[in-house]
Design a protein that fits this description.
Elements (H helix, E strand, L loop, with lengths): L12 H5 L8 H6 L6 E8 H5 L1 E2 H6 L15 E2 L11 H18 L5 E4 L3 H14 L9 E3 L7 H9 L8 E4 L14 E4 L6 H8 L14 E5 L20 E7 L4
Amino acid sequence: MTATPKRDDNIDTYAYFGEPVYSYSMGRGIEDGFLAPFQLYRVFTNIDQEGLHLQDALYQGAQVYIPEEADVKDVYTLEDFEREIVLPDRTRKICEHIANLLHTFGPMQKTMIFCVNMEHAAQVAKELQNYFSSLGHSNYAVRIVSEEPDAKVRYEQFRDSEKPTPVVATTVDLLTTGVDVPSATNIILVKPIASKVYFKQIIGRGSRIDPITNKFFFRIIDYVNASRLLDDWDYPPGAKMGKIIEGPFDLML
């Protein structure tokens, strides 16, 4: 029994065990009332679609950092951002957009943000902490990664539906599997994802129903087009959840 059967070059659940004798889709789980339905928001910036031309960015005065071990390229694409080139302005602009959404939806709704790496997760947490500093919570947004000495404490506080803070948890991989945060209402993706299994594991973090906080649906807020990995059976039979396509919003570098 598995929630996420794998089929890739190194692991093939089907080759080892054979075809499943019974399958139960996410869409069926939503229809039967066991899982929360989702709303999908797709957001993108202009450089995410068009790519970043290094010389143009430097001419405009953008903050650009290229790791020493990375090769310098003329054009960078979404998959390169925060790995082969660090773009604080882009992250800041995306965080501003996230903050505006959270203001609209409710700034105290539990939110999980999946980032490219630890440094990226730290910047996102810092930006959102600053945006919501007026709420008076010193731990409004926190980074939860395995390298944090108090990661377990932060996770236990975050997952507790009766604790209002932390509200936002930024992470890389730590919160992908084996965690249970029933009150998580917003699943935000700012890291490119190629694996369908990995994507399904991430959005599964939001599919819990939580009567304690009256959470009966969740949002997938996708800045990296990861939602292309959704299958038809992830939706309830006979119905498509509303897809909101938003963007591009200009990212002035």
